[in-house]
Amino acid sequence: SAPAEVTLQIAAFAEELHCFPTEEAYQEAQGAESRARAEMLIPAGFREVGEQTTDDRQEARVVASGHVLQAELRSNFITAEPFWHIVARVPGGTIDIVADPKEIVGKPCVHGVVSGWLWLSALVVGGLRPERRVSLFQRRRG
After folding, report:
1. Among the residues of 3-135, which ranges form H helices?
2. 70: closest CA among 109, 31, 38?
3. Which residues of 16-27 are buried (b: 16+ CB within 10 A; e: fewer)?
């Protein structure tokens, strides 16, 4: 079957996250020789079909950086433990990042940059509707 275009809502769970107040601070931290961009998303746990490994598991893990659009320190309603909810712009759209404050270096801020290792989870929110079939009779009636 032909590839389908879908819309995903992506949640990212931060394994390690660094926060920078500005893009300039992010670039400075990368070093003069770095080509890292403030908005990038690099799959780290996926393999090519047929690639031989000793482990058959695929990991939805990425190295990512993005501009912070929203940042809020929230509390888990069951455990009362704090966590950061960050919305960041990355190539192709936005991702919702949740992070334990103990796993963050720096403080997330709107217009800043976040960068780190993330585990992804996604929900298809659009684009997978069954194809509408129109009968010959319906086409003639208009």
Report:
1. 23-30
2. 109
3. ebebbeebeebb
